[in-house]
Amino acid sequence: MSEKVTNRARRAGRRTVRNKHELPRAVGLALLAPVTFLLAILFVWPFLSLFWTSVSDPTLGLQNFTSFFNTPSYVRATLTTFRVTLVVATFALALGVMIAWKLRTSRSTLMRLLLWSALILPLWQSVVIRNYAFTILLERTGVVNTTLNATGVINQPMDLLYTEFAVTIGMLYSLLPYAILPVYASFQAIDMELLSAARSAGASKARAFVSIVVPLSLPSLLASFAIVFILGLGFYITPVVLGGAGSPFLATVIDQQIYGLFDLPLAAATSTLLFIEAVIILIVAVKTVGFDRIRRAVA
Questions:
Q1: Residue 123 pLDDT more than 50?
Q2: Buried b vs exposed e over 224-245: b needs ≥16 C-beta within 10 Å?
Q3: Residues 123 and 144 both lie in one domain
Q4: Is residue 230 over pLDDT 70?
Q5: Which own/partner contact pairs does 248-257 have at CB distance under 8 Å and 24+ positions apart?
Q6: One domain for residues 23 and 88
Q7: 120 and 203 fall within a common domain
Q8: Which of 131, 157, 214, 264 could form a disulfide with 140 if both were Cys (CB 3.0 to 4.6 A apart)?
Q9: Which of 237, 227, 233 is nearest to 133 (CA)?
């Protein structure tokens, strides 16, 4: 009998301690109110207004979306945006995994310092400076062509600038930090003793990495890919400066629709499509590994 009383007292004590740390619901709602208000004003309302413009101007219907898909140049820009962004996200993830693992395993202070400097530097640079630096590197008389020509690799300058290749390189340089940081955070949580045990059991370094590290960090890998892909869909300056007219992105199309054609309803429809595409990518990522695992991966 005394044991039952003791157990009840312990359970009651745990409930009391837990309740002391829980805020009343009214206080929680009051704390969330400012954030909810800002989210509604700065995000929900602008998107709803944009969507309403796309389906109501000049008349209620989907004529703006029909006009978009009936214009070959707009469809081409959509395909170009997805193709280049997919390539950038794939390479960013591959390079991000290698760099993040090197940061996790390297014991050299100098190596870690160099890698962290290279990782943080793109975040400190202006996007305009980054892109014009690439024009100096990739133009016909730029550093790349001059070096290759001087070493005898090529006989005449290559057309590197104003191509999808230039856009891909510029976007990859800008987005690589966003691929590395979530993966590195995931690698930091992995116990290195697991790899030592796998090596002791006869697994190679590559086999141990694929069998242990990749499954444990899969949510972070997918989160990194989704982050880079979603950010890449909205790139504007890089396709304009490095790609020119040969590599149109949807953001460039929206700019032309607003300032060139003065067609705000069509621009609203294009922007809505771009937003929906980003949401679909996010939903696929969440459905694949779950929202909680992605939230922990990017936290």
A1: yes
A2: bbbbbbbbbbbbebbbbbbbee
A3: yes
A4: yes
A5: 248/73, 248/76, 248/77, 248/80, 249/77, 249/80, 249/81, 249/84, 249/167, 250/77, 250/78, 250/81, 250/274, 252/77, 253/73, 253/74, 253/77
A6: no
A7: yes
A8: 157
A9: 237
> Which of the listed residues 29, 56, 83 is the one where a domain comes to its end?
56
Residue type at 162 in one-letter notation: Y
Q: Domain count of the chain?
A: 2
Query: Within a 10 A sphere around the Cβ of 118, how many other Cβ atoms?
Result: 13
User: Are 44 and 180 found together in one domain?
Assistant: no
Do 174 and 92 lie in a common domain?
A: yes
Mean model confidence pLDDT for the chain: 83
Asked if 88 and 46 sit in the same domain, the reply is: no
Q: What is the mean pLDDT of residues 217-240?
A: 88
Tell the residue number behind the tokens 């060139």, with chain if given. 260
The pair of three-digit structure tokens given for residue 73, joined into one six-digit string: 């140049």
Q: Looking at the predicted structure, is the pLDDT value of residue 13 above 90? A: no
Q: Are residues 95 and 153 in the same domain?
A: yes
Give the containing element (helix H, strand E) for 126.
none
Q: Which domain range does residue 1 map to?
A: 1-56
Q: Are 146 and 49 members of one domain?
A: no
Q: How confident is the model at residue 298 (pLDDT cuts 50, 70, 90)?
A: low
Residues 94-123 have a mean pLDDT of: 87
Query: What is the structure's pLDDT at 16?
Result: 46
pTM given for the model: 0.82
Indicate the range of 13-27, 126-140, 197-211 predicted with least confidence. 13-27
Nearest 5°: CA angle at 64, between 67 and 61? 125
